Amino acid sequence: MTTSTPVPEQHGATVEAGAAPVVPVGVLGARGRMGTEVVKAVTAAGDLELVAMVDAGDWLFDVANAGAQVVVDFTRPDVVMDNIRFCIDHDIHCVVGTTGFDEERLATVAGWLRAKPDVGVVIAPNFGIGAVLLMRFAQEAARFFPSTEIVELHHPGKVDAPSGTAARTARLVAAARDAAGLPPSPDATTDSLPGARGADVDGVRVHAVRLTGLVAHQEVLMGAAGETLTLRHDSYDRASFMPGVLLAVREVRRRPGLTVGVESLLDL
Ligand SMILES: NC(=O)C1=CN([C@@H]2O[C@H](COP(=O)(O)OP(=O)(O)OC[C@H]3O[C@@H](n4cnc5c(N)ncnc54)[C@H](OP(=O)(O)O)[C@@H]3O)[C@@H](O)[C@H]2O)C=CC1
Ligand SMILES: O=C(O)C1=N[C@H](C(=O)O)C[C@H](O)C1
C-alpha cells in the first residue's frame, strides 16, 4: 500500500513511501537531435531522474560519478563501442540507439557482458513502435514475394547509410527468404552507374535518400506476378522514438545480458 508521506531519495529527488525508487539515468549524446529529446522525456518521467548529460568533449566519468544506473546512448557509430565498454566496466546498464551494429559488434558486446552477468544492454536500431512493427510485417510477408527492395529516407544530417533500421530489416527479410528457399530477387542489370542499384545487404537491395524536411522513413517494396505490396513507416517527429526508449530504460535492469531490438520488450 502506498502512502502520501514523502521520503528522501538519492540525487535530491523524493518519492512517496512505498513507491519504487526513481531510476538515475545518464544520457550520452545529450546535446544531439535524439539526446535532446531523451533528456526531455526522462525529465518528464516521474519514475526516472536525469543525473548526467554528456556530449562530445565532456568527461564520460560524469555518468559514473553521478550514480547513473542506466545510460542512454545516442551518439555516433565511431564512439558508441567505447561508451558501452565503459558502462559495462562500471556496472551501468545501457540502452543504445546509436547505429552501426553488425554481428561482429554485437558479439563483442555479448563477450564483454559475460564478465558482468548482472548488467543489461539493450541495442535497438529503431525504438519507434511503428518501425518495429514494419520490420515484423516485412519478415512475415517476405516469403510470398520473389522480389524485395528497401528504400530508407532520412534528414540530411544523418552520417551513416544505409540506416541501421534498413540494414536490420534487410537481414531479417533475407533470412525469411532463405528459410523459404527463395532464389535471389530477379534483376537483369548488367550495365549501371556505381550505386544506382543501392547497397547489397545479404542479397537485399537497400536505397538511401537524404532530403531536407525529412526525419526518418522507410519503405519495403515487395513484388510478385501482377502485384506489389508496399509497407511504409514515417517518423515525423523524434518524439515517436520516446515510448520505446523509456520502455527500454525501465526494463533493462531486469534483463541482464544483451537484448537486440525492443521486440521482446513488446512481447512480439
Ligand atoms: N534507435 C533509434 O530509434 C534511433 C537511432 N538514431 C541513431 O542515433 C544516433 C544519433 O543520432 P542523432 O541524435 O540524430 O545524431 P546527432 O549528431 O544529432 O547527435 C549525436 C551527439 O553525440 C555527440 N557525441 C559525439 N561523440 C560523443 C561522445 N564520445 N560522447 C558523447 N557524445 C558524443 C555529438 O556531438 P558532435 O556533434 O560534436 O559530434 C552529438 O551531439 C545515430 O546513430 C542515429 O542513427 C537516431 C534516431 C532514432
Ligand atoms: O539517424 C536517424 O535519424 C535515425 N537513425 C536510426 C537508423 O539509422 O535506423 C533510426 C531512425 O531511422 C532514425
UniProtKB/TrEMBL annotation:
<dbReference type="Pfam" id="PF05173">
    <property type="entry name" value="DapB_C"/>
</dbReference>
<keyword id="KW-0220">Diaminopimelate biosynthesis</keyword>
<feature type="domain" description="Dihydrodipicolinate reductase C-terminal">
    <location>
        <begin position="130"/>
        <end position="265"/>
    </location>
</feature>
<dbReference type="GO" id="GO:0050661">
    <property type="term" value="F:NADP binding"/>
</dbReference>
<dbReference type="InterPro" id="IPR023940">
    <property type="entry name" value="DHDPR_bac"/>
</dbReference>
<keyword id="KW-0963">Cytoplasm</keyword>
<feature type="binding site">
    <location>
        <begin position="164"/>
        <end position="165"/>
    </location>
    <ligand>
        <name>(S)-2,3,4,5-tetrahydrodipicolinate</name>
    </ligand>
</feature>
<feature type="active site" description="Proton donor">
    <location>
        <position position="158"/>
    </location>
</feature>
<feature type="binding site">
    <location>
        <begin position="29"/>
        <end position="34"/>
    </location>
    <ligand>
        <name>NAD(+)</name>
    </ligand>
</feature>
<keyword id="KW-0520">NAD</keyword>
<dbReference type="InterPro" id="IPR022664">
    <property type="entry name" value="DapB_N_CS"/>
</dbReference>
<dbReference type="GO" id="GO:0005829">
    <property type="term" value="C:cytosol"/>
</dbReference>
<comment type="similarity">
    <text>Belongs to the DapB family.</text>
</comment>
<keyword id="KW-0521">NADP</keyword>
<comment type="subunit">
    <text>Homotetramer.</text>
</comment>
<keyword id="KW-0560">Oxidoreductase</keyword>
<comment type="pathway">
    <text>Amino-acid biosynthesis; L-lysine biosynthesis via DAP pathway; (S)-tetrahydrodipicolinate from L-aspartate: step 4/4.</text>
</comment>
<keyword id="KW-0028">Amino-acid biosynthesis</keyword>
<feature type="binding site">
    <location>
        <position position="155"/>
    </location>
    <ligand>
        <name>(S)-2,3,4,5-tetrahydrodipicolinate</name>
    </ligand>
</feature>
<dbReference type="GO" id="GO:0016726">
    <property type="term" value="F:oxidoreductase activity, acting on CH or CH2 groups, NAD or NADP as acceptor"/>
</dbReference>
<dbReference type="GO" id="GO:0009089">
    <property type="term" value="P:lysine biosynthetic process via diaminopimelate"/>
</dbReference>
<feature type="binding site">
    <location>
        <position position="62"/>
    </location>
    <ligand>
        <name>NAD(+)</name>
    </ligand>
</feature>
<dbReference type="GO" id="GO:0019877">
    <property type="term" value="P:diaminopimelate biosynthetic process"/>
</dbReference>
<dbReference type="InterPro" id="IPR022663">
    <property type="entry name" value="DapB_C"/>
</dbReference>
<feature type="binding site">
    <location>
        <begin position="124"/>
        <end position="127"/>
    </location>
    <ligand>
        <name>NAD(+)</name>
    </ligand>
</feature>
<keyword id="KW-0457">Lysine biosynthesis</keyword>
<dbReference type="GO" id="GO:0051287">
    <property type="term" value="F:NAD binding"/>
</dbReference>
<dbReference type="GO" id="GO:0008839">
    <property type="term" value="F:4-hydroxy-tetrahydrodipicolinate reductase"/>
</dbReference>
<feature type="domain" description="Dihydrodipicolinate reductase N-terminal">
    <location>
        <begin position="24"/>
        <end position="127"/>
    </location>
</feature>
<protein>
    <recommendedName>
        <fullName>4-hydroxy-tetrahydrodipicolinate reductase</fullName>
        <ecNumber>1.17.1.8</ecNumber>
    </recommendedName>
</protein>
<dbReference type="InterPro" id="IPR000846">
    <property type="entry name" value="DapB_N"/>
</dbReference>
<dbReference type="InterPro" id="IPR036291">
    <property type="entry name" value="NAD(P)-bd_dom_sf"/>
</dbReference>
<feature type="region of interest" description="Disordered">
    <location>
        <begin position="178"/>
        <end position="197"/>
    </location>
</feature>
<comment type="function">
    <text>Catalyzes the conversion of 4-hydroxy-tetrahydrodipicolinate (HTPA) to tetrahydrodipicolinate.</text>
</comment>
<feature type="active site" description="Proton donor/acceptor">
    <location>
        <position position="154"/>
    </location>
</feature>
<dbReference type="Pfam" id="PF01113">
    <property type="entry name" value="DapB_N"/>
</dbReference>
<feature type="binding site">
    <location>
        <begin position="97"/>
        <end position="99"/>
    </location>
    <ligand>
        <name>NAD(+)</name>
    </ligand>
</feature>
